[in-house]
Amino acid sequence: EYDGDRNSEGERHGYGKARLPNGDKYEGEYDRGLRNGRGTYRFKNGAVYAGNYLQNRKHGKGVFFYPDGSKYIGDWVDDQRQGYGEYTYANGDTYTGEWFNHKRHGQGTYVYKDTGSKYVGGWVNGLQEGPAELIHLNHRFQGWFFNGKPLGRGKYVFDIGCEQHGEYIQSQQEKGEGEEEEEEEGSLPVETKWKALEITKLSSWNPQDEKPPFP
């Protein structure tokens, strides 16, 4: 069903309201039969998108309310979260920063609601990667992350006025008897373990001074 403006060729053009065959609803601007410009799209499952469209795709600024109660406000490109935006997750956590291809990618800040801790640093394909700070209530970790885990040299800075230098090293999970042959190398999950080296007075931190722990 469609109720709204049309052009001389009979295409939806201008402002209108539509109910789609699958039960979704759209109200907003059209251009030559396609959703184009500002509009609000209500999904049958309860999700809502309000923002810009380009040729039937979410493109530009927009806000998306997901059925689980989470919400994204920010940039869209070709139906994907891309550019800069803020995502509030169903558990209350928030991520504010850069996006690419629907994933956290670039620089961003993730705040954990339960603990108040926050991660400020790099992201690659949705995972924490690159130089970053993990800030807790009375101390912080400064170092490098890879594949969502800290790796390589870094330091813990304590509010009492000292810092502990060290490094996160990979510790392969122990294999059970007879598993050696069946498991390919690198297929087991890799955990990282903190190895403390020295405690010093407070000093400034420049991640570029350290070599990244990954290729």
Automatic annotation (TrEMBL):
GO cellular component, one term: motile cilium
Acidic residues composition bias: residue spans: 177-186
Segments crossing the lipid bilayer: none
Principal cellular location given in the protein's record: cytoplasm
Organism this protein belongs to: Pitta sordida (Hooded pitta)
Domain of life, source organism: Eukaryota
Pfam families, sorted: MORN
Keywords noted in UniProt: Cell projection, Cilium, Cytoplasm, Cytoskeleton, Flagellum, Meiosis, Repeat
SMART domains, per database record: MORN
InterPro entries: MORN
Record-given protein name: Radial spoke head 1 homolog
GO BP, sorted A to Z: axoneme assembly; meiotic cell cycle; spermatid development
Biased amino acid composition, Basic and acidic residues: 1-14, 22-31
Region annotated Disordered, chain positions: 1-31, 169-193
Protein role: Functions as part of axonemal radial spoke complexes that play an important part in the motility of sperm and cilia.
Localization per record: Cytoplasm, Cytoskeleton, Flagellum axoneme
